[in-house]
Amino acid sequence: MLTNSILTILGMALVTYATRAGGLWFIERVKPTPRVEKWLRHIPGAILVSIVAPMIVKSDSAELIAVTATVIVGIATKNVLLTMLVGIGVVLLARNFI
Amino acid sequence: MSGEHIAFTIKGALTGAQRALPLALSVFAYGSVFGVLARQTGMSAVEAISMSGFVNAGSAQLVVLDLWNFPLPAFTIILTTLIINLRHLLMGAALQPWFSQLSTPRKYLSAFFIGDENWALSMREFQQGQRDAAFLLGSGLMLFIAWLASTATGYAMGAGVSDPARWGLDFAFLAVFLALIAGMWRGKSDMLPWAVAAGVAILASHWLPGKWYIVLGGLAGSAAGAMRHAD
Questions:
Q1: Tell me: the pLDDT tens digits for B61-94?
Q2: Mutating which of A3, A7, A31, A49 best tests the B interface, going by the most B Cβ atoms within 10 A?
Q3: pLDDT tens-digit profile of A63-78?
Q4: Chain A within 8 Å of B89 (Cβ-Cβ)?
């Protein structure tokens, strides 16, 4: 039982590491063209937006207020810690008072 | 970037670790939830902690808990893990401009520590002129420690750990990503790719299981960005 679960965990570890190393490994072997480099530069923003957009769509009204406040503070300050704390603070207030 | 010297120093790693501290709070909340649920699922402490140590991938670990019934469906669990983590392929490829100069051990040691939060933080730093690639490793180590410690804490406390929503900590993840996005906006050229990414991700999250929506939204949005300046 134990060996079985440890083997499963090791299998998970192996495929996860393969995904982490594989993208870099592959792109280094195809020698990126300018077009590919342009594509690479757009990946971070596109992935981040893809992570948050569905969460925002599913948000309730308290969370939407906090999202708005977070975005405003984020743009104004560019400070991750401060922005996160404001977001958490606003969501707590909004949940308790709305 | 090409031709520019990329460093890999302890100092860079320490800067990364320090900048990742606020993210560690959000990871800690998430990891405690994993620890609590792992125990409720019937995992031993050794299993839960070694999963966090070897796999080090929050969303995959949480999803897999649903499948953790004996006899273990090992193949399904490993395949599910692979699919949820496919987004790392894109994230790793995006690191190429900063990582191609590094030695193989440094590159592939750093790769283990690619996670959503610290990868996003590192990409923002690199875009803003950070030229020490050890930033990713340092930030990843900080979150790895938070992830391991919180798995153990959640497991030890069991149901005694309070609901993260009570402290607004469930919102920390979204807030961190919004903060990172706010710092990544480079102007109007981002408008189309971001809109495409958002649209595709929302649709995909509605129709497809797991984390396909991140893979598809990321692919569609970045492809739109690459096409747009076709000349």
A1: 988 988 898 889 999 899 989 988 999 999 999 9
A2: A49
A3: 999 999 999 999 998 8
A4: yes
Say if the Cβ atoms of B214 and A47 lie within 8 Å.
yes
Nearest chain B residue to A58 by CA: give it: B202
Asked if A45 lies within 8 A of B194 by C-beta distance, the reply is yes
Judge whether B10 and B134 are in contact, CB under 8 Å.
Answer: yes
pLDDT for position B231: 43
| ipTM beyond cut 0.90 | no
State whether residue A95 sits within 8 Å of chain B by CB: yes
B residues 167-206 lying closer than 8 A (beta carbon) to A: 167-169, 171-172, 174-186, 190, 193-194, 196-202, 205-206
A11–B78: do the CB atoms touch at under 8 Å?
yes
Q: Closest approach of chain B CAs to the CA of A97, in angstroms?
A: 14
pLDDT in tens, B7-37: 999 999 999 999 999 899 889 988 988 898 8
Please state, in angstroms and rounded to a whole number, the distance separating the CA atoms of residues B14 and B135: 7
Q: Which residue has the higher pLDDT, A45 or B167?
A: A45
Which position has the token pair 């679960």? A5
Kindly report the pTM of this predicted structure.
0.84
